[in-house]
């Protein structure tokens, strides 16, 4: 599902412009399977993470252009991702219709839900199928039979979309499509698995929690908590500078000095407890909206801070279901000698890999 898209190609560049750094992956279609061509990344220091890279398009474009050159990428057709926090997404039930009538019905509902004028938004939707139950209240005029269609509606501000277009153009790339991070993560980490799954993407500044049912992001939530929050907590506890705390966080050996016998470090407990509460909230919301639906069967953890010691174990205890570190390379063909390095960078590359998988998976 994309907010805009063009013709398919043999290979794509997945370009993930994140607060903690930029990631690039090129995958090609090898008889229906994704094959790794090249990859690259550029990190941003903790002092830079709070600033939106899209607010400095020239600098960001130069860094993307440098990644393309360093990686010797062949393709210039790029797919990028809109952040969960910047996109409106909702499941709607509208009177069964087709063509212009369906479009009109969706826009009526969108006007009620989106706090921005629709003229300033780019909307896209995916029909999920007919549903037997309808929203509360009598069937509206024009729908006497009470037939309903369930739709996944996605919307993004035109100004935000234009920023991505501008960066791609400055970097010498053709932006084929803009997708949501949620769909990219589902493509790389969930694939065709139809089990009800929760994805927890712990990014540099924000954490995205996505509840996936039958391959569709039924609910999503973005919270102001990420790797930078962990870095600040470690720095405050040890009296270390932001850069020193970031280095300690990256050094598992150094971090082990403040690890208790079990659980996460005490300095991180309040942050992890907050994350756990948000996960429970999303599960409860899902249960209230989908009575009788399958409960969450597993939690897939990704993002740079997913590599912190015992984070996955902690999140497993939150919902009492299996939690594991997601592997975005599981559906990708690559040279076996690259496996050690790909394992290390995998959590940071889940979005980029999912973007580059467009039209392959």
From TrEMBL:
CDD domains the UniProt entry points to: ASKHA_NBD_PilM
InterPro entries assigned to the protein according to its UniProt record, in alphabetical order: ATPase_NBD (IPR043129), FtsA/MreB (IPR050696), PilM (IPR005883)
Pfam (any one): PilM_2
PANTHER family, A to Z: CELL DIVISION PROTEIN FTSA-RELATED (PTHR32432), ETHANOLAMINE UTILIZATION PROTEIN EUTJ (PTHR32432:SF3)
Protein name stated in the entry: SHS2 domain-containing protein
């Amino acid at each position: 599902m994309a907010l805009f898209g063009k013709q398919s190609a043999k290979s794509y560049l997945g370009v993930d412009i994140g607060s903690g750094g930029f990631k690039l992956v090129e995958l090609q279609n090898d008889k229906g399977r994704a094959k790794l061509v090249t990859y690259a990344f550029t990190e941003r220091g903790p002092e830079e993470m709070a600033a939106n890279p899209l607010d400095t398009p020239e600098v960001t474009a130069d860094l993307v252009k440098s990644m393309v050159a360093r990686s010797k990428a062949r393709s210039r057709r790029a797919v990028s991702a809109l952040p969960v926090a910047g996109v409106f997404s909702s499941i709607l039930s509208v009177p069964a219709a087709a063509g212009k009538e369906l479009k009109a019905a969706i826009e009526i509902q969108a006007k009620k839900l989106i706090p921005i004028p629709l003229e300033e938004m780019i909307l896209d939707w995916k029909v999920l199928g007919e549903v037997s139950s309808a929203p509360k209240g009598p069937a509206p005029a024009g729908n006497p039979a009470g037939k309903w269609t369930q739709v996944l509606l996605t919307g993004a501000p035109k100004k935000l979309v234009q920023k991505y277009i501008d960066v791609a153009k400055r970097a010498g790339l053709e932006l084929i499509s803009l997708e949501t991070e949620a769909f990219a993560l589902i493509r790389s980490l969930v694939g065709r698995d139809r089990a009800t799954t929760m994805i927890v993407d712990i990014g540099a500044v924000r954490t995205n929690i996505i509840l996936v049912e039958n391959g569709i992001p039924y609910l999503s939530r973005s919270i102001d908590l990420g790797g930078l929050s962990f870095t600040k907590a470690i720095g405050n506890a040890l009296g270390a500078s932001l850069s020193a705390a970031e280095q300690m966080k990256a050094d598992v050996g150094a971090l082990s000095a403040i690890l208790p016998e079990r659980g996460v470090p005490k300095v991180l407990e309040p942050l992890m407890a907050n994350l756990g509460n948000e996960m429970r909230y999303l599960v409860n919301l899902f249960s209230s909206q989908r009575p009788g639906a399958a409960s969450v069967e597993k939690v897939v953890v990704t993002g740079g801070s997913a590599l912190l010691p015992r984070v996955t174990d902690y999140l497993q205890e939150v919902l009492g279901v299996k939690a594991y570190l997601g592997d975005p390379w599981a559906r990708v063909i690559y040279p076996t000698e690259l496996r050690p390095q790909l394992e290390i960078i995998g959590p940071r590359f889940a979005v980029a890999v999912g973007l580059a998988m467009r039209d392959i998976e």
